[in-house]
Amino acid sequence: MNKKELISSIHNVIENRSKKEIVKILHNTYPVDLKEAFEEMKPQEVFNFISLMPLKNSSELFGYLDEQMQLTILDFMDRTMIKELFEKMPSDERADLFNIMSETLQDRILPILTKAEQEDIIKLSSYEENVIGSIMTSNYATLKANMNALESISYLRKIAGDIESIYETFVINENRELVGSVSLKSLIMAEPDSLIEDFMRKNPISLKASDPVEFCVKVIQDYDLLIAPVVDENNILVGIITYDDVIDVAIEEAEEDFQKMSGTSVEVSKHGNTGVLTSIKDAAISTLYKKRIYWLVILVFGNIFSSAGIAYFEDTISAYIALVFFLPLLIGSGGNAGSQSATLTVRALATGDINLKDWAGMLGKELMIATLLGLTMAFAVSFVGIFRGGYEIALVVSLSMIFIVMFGSIVGMSLPFLLSKFKLDPASASSPLITSITDAVGVLIFFSIATSILDIPA
Amino acid sequence: MNKKELISSIHNVIENRSKKEIVKILHNTYPVDLKEAFEEMKPQEVFNFISLMPLKNSSELFGYLDEQMQLTILDFMDRTMIKELFEKMPSDERADLFNIMSETLQDRILPILTKAEQEDIIKLSSYEENVIGSIMTSNYATLKANMNALESISYLRKIAGDIESIYETFVINENRELVGSVSLKSLIMAEPDSLIEDFMRKNPISLKASDPVEFCVKVIQDYDLLIAPVVDENNILVGIITYDDVIDVAIEEAEEDFQKMSGTSVEVSKHGNTGVLTSIKDAAISTLYKKRIYWLVILVFGNIFSSAGIAYFEDTISAYIALVFFLPLLIGSGGNAGSQSATLTVRALATGDINLKDWAGMLGKELMIATLLGLTMAFAVSFVGIFRGGYEIALVVSLSMIFIVMFGSIVGMSLPFLLSKFKLDPASASSPLITSITDAVGVLIFFSIATSILDIPA
């Protein structure tokens, strides 16, 4: 069924108010396809369709909709519908929805929920954005170590409709401490009367609710987990994270770094990712303008340092205009080498390849690489130097190239560490920033070397 | 158990040749932790330990090891061990291992395998690198539409040990065409005698074996799939892709784009990702040098165009040395605006937010944004211009700023489209490349405007 067919069968269902037909549509359509069809329908129609759906389906589907559409549809709902929806929604998505509501709406909804739901929402909403607690769900089942495989399977079968996943279940003791994990596969393969404690994985790997969201990506990837348990500081099980949350986090984190490093995101706090553009196609011109102008204007004023440097060496430049030929080349090379180092370092810090204590080691390595790069590029530029300015100028340009490339590389490598050290996001060491620093210092290096080697008339 | 304890218990097992002890270790240790322990042990020890393991475990673990370690351990194995290992390994990892072997080794191993295994390896190895076929696995079970739930569960239970996952199983007809999918959850929740065809999802979403690997990320993410079926051009089921492969692909693709865009990767073919650095901590200095010097030297020669431009305007510069003050600022701003556009466009193309046919629409949008950016920056720079050079120079600098920022933005936005059009990777539109183009053209724009506005002595 393509989108057009889907929309027309949705219209049919709304007209005939046929609940039987709706179940058929839902069974063979993915939530994301429904969401895309909704985007081309009127809000009133979407609401009519959703209110005909079985609650089990509508509460699941609701989590797939964009925030704006969720709020619009909520507007059509009466108290009873909202209450039922909130009872059935997956707990992580329910907390997200609650978080985007106006305070007035929150105050109206909270009292109609049960005590347990209120507490769950408040608990999940209380986690700072961008810690694992804020994306975990509390819709999960737990098992006890003294249950047998058969009992466990029938228990899971009974509650499967209400929880996020039954494929990995966690085992807790009487204090709700995490003691083991059991996959549905191992439950199915086990003898029916064998005890969980005899075949569960003991001391499973777990995530802390207070850890930054990025942590879950590395753990789930390295350990090939489908679901990871989340515990508090006392090893009490408080939630789960599923692989699909992790795919979303991994992609969002990467986009965030791309945007920060190209100077298209102004967010500098370490775990703030609310500013990530998810679509440049849909983004308004004013949004894109605001995202980009910030760094660009800062860098205009940053570049005043380069101008001041050049002004200081006006006499040298007047005597040897040929030096100007090499200015873009030299400062550009420093910026390029610096951007390379910065990108490699930022990503290595983001993926956990290196951490703060590796700085000294990386500095030594970077120094060696930068020296090699500088020497190679000095050699390349010396020919251009001889051709355009003669031997003396070639010497000045080659020497400058070595020091500028080394300076750019070291700054590009060290700045992300420094930002990280001060709890800022290393990705703020954007290419534009590195380029501007290298420009200003490059000017000084170049004209200082020129002034000391060349014969400047007083 | 930390790494040190793990290594010491591995040493114990090797000494006592205790198979019972080994099963206990394997049950409570994750493959990735064993792999890390192996990295600190001698190859002979690792081999001794692996040969004591039950085949089921060693064949699974083998896929987690690095290529180099796999080959080293293979060297210790006799024909029988290799044959057994190849029989039990997951099919995608077996094909990967086969691909990295020397031809001599391949020719020695192929004849000792069964006909079916030979064919499977050859089929999986025949897919081009970076299409979905090359990362899919053929270890999966299928069901028939006329089986009932109980039969299906006992069938899956029997073969669960040999296949990659039983959580989503695909239903095929007599021609092996994909007709449905069934989750283990729905099997467990269904009445034991209900038929698969009555509760399976009909026409499930599927991937094509010949599609690029990036495609699987978007499909698995949008549809929240655990496992996606892979079909050939006739809708015949040929393999499956699991969520963990997708997490790996998503992360590798993002790293590849980071490295290309900062000019630290020389690969330009669209789906080539063999050149991705996975760790800068472990990478040799010579590797990092080679990755980085390529673009840097190209750009040195690319910058000859900027130098030539400057040389052409030597008289203008001699007459107004103050123009030089603004040179780094103007060309830097163009490069910054261009890098921003390029990053946003490359990522939007990579994530499927936009595609080739959106170029005209994006161009219109970019023109508006670039005009706004240029005007704002011209305004900012006009103050610096008046202060450092007077009103005339300020006019020249402000006008140049508008055109240079517009030029940089349009090139940054269009180059990724152009590369994509010619089947090259859009990420090759790296910041260094954009910067160099903008430098050269920026010089021409700036000094042409200066020459036409200012009074140049003949």
From TrEMBL, chains A, B:
Q: What is its main location?
A: membrane
Where in this chain does the record put each CBS domain?
A: 136-199, 200-256
Write down a Pfam family by its short name. MgtE_N
Q: Where are the transmembrane segments?
A: 293-313, 319-337, 367-387, 393-419, 431-454
The membrane topology term of the UniProt record is: Multi-pass membrane protein
Localization recorded for this chain is: Cell membrane; Membrane
The family database entries (CDD domains) matched by this protein are listed as: CBS_pair_Mg_transporter
GO MF entry, a single one: magnesium ion transmembrane transporter activity
Keywords attached to this entry: CBS domain, Cell membrane, Magnesium, Membrane, Metal-binding, Transmembrane, Transmembrane helix, Transport
Quick one: a GO cellular component term? plasma membrane
Q: Which InterPro entries match?
A: CBS_dom, CBS_dom_sf, Mg_transptr_MgtE_intracell_dom, MgtE_N_sf, MgtE_transporter, SLC41_membr_dom, SLC41_membr_dom_sf
The Swiss-Prot or TrEMBL record describes its family as follows: Belongs to the SLC41A transporter family.
* Subunit structure, as described in the record: Homodimer.
UniProt function note: Acts as a magnesium transporter.
Protein name (database record): Magnesium transporter MgtE
Annotated source species = Arcobacter porcinus
